[in-house]
Amino acid sequence: MFAQQTCARSRKEPILTIENKFYSQEVHGPYELFSVGDFELEMGGKLRDCKIAYNTFGTLNAAKDNAILFPHMYTGTHKHMEPYVGEGMALDPTNYFIILPGQIGNGLSSSPHNTPAPFNMAAFPNVTIGDDVRAQHKLVKEHFGIDALQLVVGWSMGAQQTYEWAVRYPDMVKRAAPIAGTAKGYPHNLLFNENLAAAMKMDPAWNNGWYTDPHAVHVGLRRQARIMALHATCPEFYYQEAWRRAGFSSLEDFLVGLLEGYFLPMDPNDLLCQLWKWHHADVSRHTNGDLTQALARIKAKTFVMPFQEDMFFPVNDCEREQKLIPNSEFRPIPSLWGHFTMFGIFEEDKKAIDNVLKELLAVPINVARS
Amino acid sequence: MFAQQTCARSRKEPILTIENKFYSQEVHGPYELFSVGDFELEMGGKLRDCKIAYNTFGTLNAAKDNAILFPHMYTGTHKHMEPYVGEGMALDPTNYFIILPGQIGNGLSSSPHNTPAPFNMAAFPNVTIGDDVRAQHKLVKEHFGIDALQLVVGWSMGAQQTYEWAVRYPDMVKRAAPIAGTAKGYPHNLLFNENLAAAMKMDPAWNNGWYTDPHAVHVGLRRQARIMALHATCPEFYYQEAWRRAGFSSLEDFLVGLLEGYFLPMDPNDLLCQLWKWHHADVSRHTNGDLTQALARIKAKTFVMPFQEDMFFPVNDCEREQKLIPNSEFRPIPSLWGHFTMFGIFEEDKKAIDNVLKELLAVPINVARS
């Protein structure tokens, strides 16, 4: 019965869900909702009537062997990946069927802000990258009937999902491109993650997750944006004022215009759900904590693609992992945009990423492997 | 009349000064107070009866030409520099007269928490690195009668003071060793600085600087500690769990034990006073914003000594400046401790720094220069 109700805007009624117009097709473009059903979670707990929002491009061929999966990063939705899909690009919808699955907790899929009581908001259960990938597996396998993916590619938390796919379903993933992300969390990255979460939680308006207005926590969201700005690009980016080329007129104009503006419309509990997932991503839980064993499971031809100046996921961490992946290559991409290179704000960065993906898709796959 | 009163602990009386036992000789060891008198500040405003706390080692010789000045970093006092003073070390008190001057705002010198109303706490005026150096100049020249310093050396904000000395009083400074700091602020560093300040200000107990208990802002102080932890060392430090060698049993044990514990006893307004100084340090204000001209003024033999993995003051920034200093050498020091290398927690780091300082002090100074 609760499921029928939406946000109770009067403080006298119990809060059920938060209405936030940001999480809509008007803002994020068209998408479908896939019903995962009642979905038991890795850490315990269950999502009733779990849905994941997704979009697709291109057509699944009769053999169902032309699919690519492209999950998204923290704060993102399918929309953020769409600039990498296009005719003449690596992810060309004239050749491939490209699925952009939404994370649980991204605001369009089942998320703290849109889940009815009693599992709403701060009571939303902890979700893992493994849960996301299992939900996506249902979409890919049960809904579309796809047995193998030509490529799984993702940036940041998308790379975490990519690793999870390649380790969990090694026979399904023919190629993998984890971009600027790692197969498990390393302590400096986790400390950064904790600082992002704490920025929101320090705002008294957060109220342990029980804010009543969708944008009440705006000071905490702005604070998170400015902590993110510390690691989003790199010191040389700021020194060279590279933001000028992106149309900003001052450092403050960049920080407020790009970063604060980006976070402001979002739902803090949805973000915290994603941050918790990011924090706990670890493919080595499949092998009792042995990362070497976990990464050795990967059968995909893998290009490990860190961004050279990345302060979220330093190249060292990515390279150490690459060396543990049997059929892999190390393909770092340089850009002053650091972790944010993937936003493709400089056309040449987008092109560089696209070229590496083209190269990976051109690698013939030894069918005997899968 | 207000000057006679100390902290009013009852909420019914006006707050005058904050009593904080951390800022005492019991905690920081012996020191002297030098009266600068009524001191007009660079940014306007005036400190009445301004005092700077300092300590000295060794004996000033008859010629008064064996003095070394060693100002301190953010959060520090003279005490933090003392491990670099000792027989057989570069700063050997058997040869040199070593002055460790306290910054204004360090809690022992005139500071927001110990200044009487109406200029107490949040009403304490903005102080610059230039003010510190002018106050230290009075101590050195007027109080001790010293005309030239064999060496000015400082770490982090101490390096800012070192640069200010070398640019402002080029004939007085024979050698300079700015360690892990820059002559002006660069944007990434300033963004970090802003995040440290904001961590305290986000704590509702901060109350715009008008907290009534000295340790009321402990949540903000802990938060600052954890943001500082992001840049204090470097990702590899955390990856390699280098904190184990320092006696910590887990990452959390390190973060709470070293960093949170370090900040907890401090006064937020005192820290904010120092952060503002750090943020506005810039020797190029002596030359209408022309850094090249400002650094060209330096006559000291200068060793620019960044820490290789420093995330506060990256080596690139330090090297660019070094190239603008006429009689200088670039002497980066590697350590996983990054910016915190100067704490000398690993004996070999302390030794490495000491060795470079020994080398600098061994450079014969061409008297014709000064």
User: Fraction of residues of chain A in helices?
Assistant: 25-40%
**What string, H for helix and E for strand, traces the elements of chain A in order?**
HEEEHEHEHEHHHHHHEHEH
First-to-last CA distance of chain A: 46 Å
* Structural class by secondary-structure content of chain A: alpha/beta
State the strand order across the main sheet of chain A. 1-2-4-3-5-6-7-8
Q: What can be said about the biggest beta sheet of chain A?
A: 8 strands, mixed
Poorly predicted residue ranges of chain A: 1-11
Number of strands of chain A: 8
Subunit arrangement of the protein = homodimer
Strand content of chain A: 5-15%
- Nearest-angstrom radius of gyration of chain A? 20 Å
- Count of DSSP-assigned helices of chain A: 12
Query: What is the 3D shape of chain A?
Result: globular
Features:
eight-stranded mixed sheet; homodimer; 12 helices; alpha/beta
What does this structure look like?
With 370 residues, chain A is α/β, with parallel strands linked by helices. The first copy, chain A, is built from 12 helices and 8 strands. Chain A has helices spanning 25-28, 78-81, 129-143, 157-168, 187-201, 218-232, 235-239, 251-263, 268-280, 291-296, 315-322, 347-362; strands spanning 32-40, 46-57, 67-69, 97-101, 151-155, 175-179, 301-304, 328-330. Chain A is globular. The N and C termini of chain A lie far apart (46 Å).
